């Protein structure tokens, strides 16, 4: 791991955003090994080789670092989901692929080697701002797909758009939220397809 | 709490099923106060005033007592759900009331004062036989309602019955399984109605 000099001069040292990225990268690695909830900023400072005060210059709390990691993680899921949606022009198929990609991406990030699960669980339990914003973006994606499907006559138009999107979000939620997903691991193989089919039946004109 | 003589004669003492019920009642109370997972059969024996050997005459393990308590609890939920289904003749309304009753009954049993949550969570995590049988009965109830709704022309007939019932079960699962329900407490007010509406849209002929 690269460590900067302990007293980087403000002029010659790395830019702030570089130091921030470096702290986040090191913290991600540390949390992955030792968990988020049991680690203190002191532990983190020791492990990165920075002083605690230096870390506090860039992040006001452990949660601020956690939020950054969480945001990176959710952005990765979002990128996968958007790519899946963009991979077809047919709105019904967009919905199927969105559900499948969301589950696969969440499983990979939260459960492969329990990587990042601890931080995701804390974020979901405490309903961090990053998590709430992510949920809103997922709902917005659903609304977009519904709108496209209504325009292409694939979906019915009677149900208020917002009501339909919220209900579909509730169907997907157990496979997006890591707290619920951990108790649904037996279902991640079949449930996305079965639930997508049910949702598509609910949307038929 | 009633305690029998410590050496009940096989002829004059209480019948076996009475002693079993007495152990289950005392254990329910004990688990409610101290939790299921941390209690041993020794703790239980001490608290009931029986010898450990006497308890083992009636139950082969702590889990055997737990299974009985869990079965009682699930039977209570099932009774509520069946009553809700029987309270209307219209299949779509049966489905709505079934979902609502299942959530309300589960919330009352598992979360009011966290009563019995500990034992329900253990049962769900370890997938006890009582839990698996309960899930099958819920799926059978769903199939019954679907059959009735197909006969009355309220529901479509294209989707294989089993496929439709399984998918609806998956929609209800996060509100029936205590492990998932604990993370859905913010949604128990609105989600059952929103999801019932989505499910009914999926069933429209």
Automatic annotation (TrEMBL), chains A, B:
This is TetR family transcriptional regulator. Residues 40-59 bind DNA. It comes from Massilia frigida. Signal peptide: none annotated. PROSITE patterns: HTH_TETR_2. Keywords: DNA-binding, Transcription, Transcription regulation. The keyword Transcription applies. Residues 17-77 form the HTH tetR-type domain. It comes from the Bacteria. The lineage of its organism: Bacteria, Pseudomonadati, Pseudomonadota, Betaproteobacteria, Burkholderiales. InterPro entries: Homeodomain-like_sf, HTH-type_TetR-like_transc_reg, HTH_TetR, Tet_transcr_reg_TetR-rel_C_sf, TetR_C_27.
């Amino acid at each position: 791991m690269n460590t900067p000099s302990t007293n980087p001069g403000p002029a010659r040292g790395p830019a702030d955003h570089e130091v921030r990225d470096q702290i986040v990268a090191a913290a991600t690695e540390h949390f992955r090994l030792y968990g988020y909830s049991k680690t203190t900023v002191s532990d983190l400072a020791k492990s990165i080789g920075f002083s605690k005060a230096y870390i506090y210059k860039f992040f006001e709390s452990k949660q601020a670092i956690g939020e950054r990691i969480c945001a990176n993680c959710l952005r990765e899921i979002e990128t996968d989901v958007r790519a899946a949606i963009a991979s077809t022009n047919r709105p019904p198929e967009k919905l199927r692929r969105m559900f499948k990609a969301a589950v696969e991406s969440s499983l990979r990030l939260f459960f492969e080697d329990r990587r990042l699960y601890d931080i995701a669980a804390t974020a979901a339990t405490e309903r961090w701002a990053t998590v709430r914003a992510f949920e809103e973006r997922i709902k917005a994606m659903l609304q977009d797909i519904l709108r496209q499907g209504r325009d292409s006559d694939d979906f019915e138009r009677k149900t208020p758009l917002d009501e339909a999107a919220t209900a579909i979000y509730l169907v997907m939620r157990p496979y997006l939220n890591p707290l619920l997903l951990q108790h649904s691991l037996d279902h991640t193989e079949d449930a996305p397809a079965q639930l997508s089919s049910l949702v598509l039946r609910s949307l038929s004109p």
